[in-house]
Amino acid sequence: MPEPQGNTIPTDSIPSIIAALSPSSHSLWIQAWKKSNIETILSQKFSTATISVLAPDNTALTAAGYTADRIAAATTSELDTLLMYHTLIGNLDPTLLRQGVPLQFAKSLLQDASLAVGLSKSVPGATFKGTEIYSYRHAVQMAGNDLMVDGKRLTLGNTAKIVRGWVLPVNQVLEMPRHQMKQWLEADGRFSLFLKALDLISASYEANFNMWGGYWIVYDAVDPSFQLDTKKYYAGWIPNVANQLMRNTLFAPTDEAFHKAGIFNAAQLETLNNRFNYAEAYEGKPTLDSMLHLHMPAAAEMDMPFDDNWYVTGVRIISTPTPANTVFHSDILNNTLLGNYNLNAGGGSDKKLNLTFDRTGASAITVNGIDSETPAATITEADRMTLQGPVHVVDRLIIPGSFKF
């Protein structure tokens, strides 16, 4: 990062957050800010933090339903949530961002104390593992003069330095995740075959691998509550623990995607899944989850000598305390960034992403396995936000070349 240049601006000449915004374009944001408890929250809980406020303009807030009347009728809690979600911890200096600061994940002020995410802290000779309270966060980088947030392109207004950091006027309200991945799939209605496949995979893991101990070598030595607890919930290889989340990305295949692969009903999925047994696993023959595993980049794999294509996200992470980031919004889905991406950044054997991307036309993105023999999947809907991370809806299955029906 380049050294700061120019003279220091006297603090008394730097505006407050409200004073930095134009009343003509941001009267609704100012109204919400004044009615909320955000100033108290900042002074009591984040008194020393540098902040960057993404302030949607009146047009954006109105489109999202935040009219003057709604803001007037809203509870302070509702407004606190909106404002905290758009207030990020850290210095998003637009000048520095334009100079090529790489993608960064910035926590917002908004947290959910009922949820936890894994946390590792390494010191010489030891790694301590545990959890921390879930913070809603955003993936941020510049694209020319526009600000990319969670894969969405935002037009920046006149940014302003404030006492605590920066105000960045934007033209969109950020989408806030409300559900875990599996809940989102269930509520949507387009993914019944994928959900059935996950249920079948879960049942097979339960029946064949004794997930409550024994074969889970790492679970005998380490408290499994670090990243996920299989005694609670599991959805195929998507961690679906009630209160412990892993951040990840899902390429979600619709029912139509299964139809294109010749799969139309649960009976066909059951036939594929019936391959699941110890002998076939040891011999490395493909099973149902081997067909689907490329749909979620896995920062972990089973800590067992069986089929290397069977992923259980969250197990290997215990022995690999610093896995690579696997939250991929649409703006970084390209081979330049992800073409040789190693999922085990913290050591251990290399585990490549094994996906290849292409952009057709102005915006359409295709994704496929590196060795896939089937047509590439097109992302028909990108960056749908869940608590774990983005869901990209795809119109075909991403089938590894090694999988044979």
From TrEMBL:
Domain of life assignment: Bacteria
InterPro entries in the cross-refs: Adhesion/Biosynth-related, FAS1_dom_sf, FAS1_domain
Domain FAS1: 178-398
Name used for this protein in its record: FAS1 domain-containing protein
Taxonomic placement: Bacteria, Pseudomonadati, Bacteroidota, Chitinophagia, Chitinophagales
